[in-house]
Amino acid sequence: MKAKIHKKPLKHFLSITDLSAKEILSILSLSQKLKKELKEEDSNKELLKGETLAMIFEKPSLRTRLSFEIGMTQLGGHAIYLAPADIGLNTREPAEDVAQVISSMADLIMARTFKHETIEKLAANSLVPVINALSDLEHPCQILADMLTILEVKRKLKGLSIAYVGDCENNVTHSLCLSCAILGINFSTASPHGYEIKKEILEKAKKLAGKKSRITETSRPQEAVINADVVITDTWISMGDEAEKEKRLRIFKPYQVNKKLMSRAKKDAIFMHCLPAYRGNEVTSEVIDGKQSVVFQEAENRLHAQKALILYLLNYN
Ligand code: CP
Ligand code: NVA
Questions:
Q1: Are residues 222 and 249 in contact, defined by beta-carbon separation less than 8 angstroms?
Q2: How far does residue 276's CA lie from ligand 1's centre (Å)?
Q3: 16-139+302-312 with 141-298: one CATH topology?
Q4: How many CB atoms neighbour CB 291 within 10 A?
Q5: Average pLDDT of each block of 10 consecutive residues along the chain (317 residues)?
Q6: Is 141-298 CATH 3.40.50.620?
Q7: Domain spans of the chain?
Q8: How far is the centre of ligand 2, averaged over its atoms, from the C-alpha of 235 (Å)?
Q9: In this structure, which topology does domain 16-139+302-312 adopt according to CATH?
Q10: CB atoms near residue 133 (< 10 Å)
Q11: pTM above 0.85, yes or no
Q12: Which active-site residues does the annotation give?
């Protein structure tokens, strides 16, 4: 089994743009196989026996920690959780040194940080793959699970229309926008002025999209969701934005995903959210707990997508 893992070439996953459309689709296909195997046989093959993943967290997590840790266990490997206070990343020890030490022992590094730059520093100094498990700029692991969920429900990706309503200067929105561009999915956003997708991300996405997909921005939610196959939102107060809570609650109020807004999307549109969700703020209970919502399927898919991603990064074949 172990012979199927190759340490070379060294691949990192810092941005969803580290993958081509073909690579994303192949990871999704492997995710589906691993999911099927787990459901049918109650276990996966021990493809990662003897492999260790070191998980660095500067922020809280439920799904990301669970999916990486359980994923490693199910594939016969091991994961180590390093809490913010354990390492003191950039305070007790610089990211560069941390990366060199961890990569001399572990086979993979996963990091959830405030600054995207910290993950870049880890990758630049690591001899093993580094995975972005959320930074202020991107959340690419979430997007693999989201695409897996959309593929399961809609049976295709290319040509679909996804609408995102809310805080667009956001890690989830950024990775989503880039992935839609790569995969030929139309992407429309609605956000208040000042909370649009970061300029450099939008430019990159438009370049990647070419003629394959349309990327549009508006400040009117009612406009963004028209004819959407998928409606997505995220918290208005991301980790690190807590000081702006009152201001954000006020500004984003008209951007709530509710039944009326969902009724403007396609009849069979689905609702997605990476979770944790704040019912009554970015989404009503009626929508997130309603029939169109696939949020728990989406959360479970973190597990299956994570496993396939790890195997891809370790050049499993
Ligand atoms: N969606 C997501 O990344 O969840 P956690 O913050 O709980 O890991
Ligand atoms: N945008 C959110 C995602 C949480 C999974 C945050 O960064 O807090």
A1: no
A2: 7
A3: yes
A4: 8
A5: 75 98 98 98 97 97 98 98 92 96 98 98 98 98 99 98 98 98 98 98 98 97 98 98 97 98 98 98 98 98 98 94
A6: no
A7: 16-139+302-312, 141-298
A8: 7
A9: Rossmann fold (3.40.50)
A10: 26
A11: yes
A12: 112, 139, 142, 234, 274, 302
